[in-house]
Amino acid sequence: MTGGVKIRHALAERGDDFYPTPLEAVRSLLDVERVYLPERIWEPACGDGAIVLPFREAGYQVHASDLVGRGCPDSEAGLDFLKPFAMPRGLGGIVTNPPYKHAQAFVDRALDIVPYVAMLLRLSFLEGQARRPWFEKTPLARVWVSSARLPMMHRDGWDGPVATSTTAFAWFVWDARHEGSPRIRWFDWRQHQ
Hints:
It comes from Microvirga mediterraneensis. This is Methyltransferase. This protein has 193 residues and is of the alpha/beta class. It contains five helices and eight strands; from the N terminus they run ααβαβββαβαβββ. The N and C termini lie far apart (34 Å).
């Protein structure tokens, strides 16, 4: 607690970690990664369609699935991305806002399937002595840091006060076509609306 405001929810409160993705983040990714995004992607934690729908509207073919059905149109429910099952064919990339408690496992699984992966994660995902060797074996292509805080992502079913975000987010991109060190760039979501 800081000044009476709870900064982080306990894992038990977060349940399956569903925090709908702000449209502002999705539109920004569509703009900043436009030249890199594959035509056919998979959103394996599609939730209510927050990433799927804007991508489809922009002309991308999107296969959508999730562990839990949350109303995303034309999606498959009951698929645990981290478990083996028949993969969709012809995919060029995976774009998702994964459950943060499984973020690294989502990246590992995605990179086993496709050459292009973009994940919306806390900027703090870059931190940690244990994660450093993993990043050295799993090199990033680009990190798009949101220079203006994204609108708050409240967990599904949240009925408390709506607050501004205290967390920095970034789009982390792994791209097999990239050579050299990762590129760090910034975006202001207000410029991509």
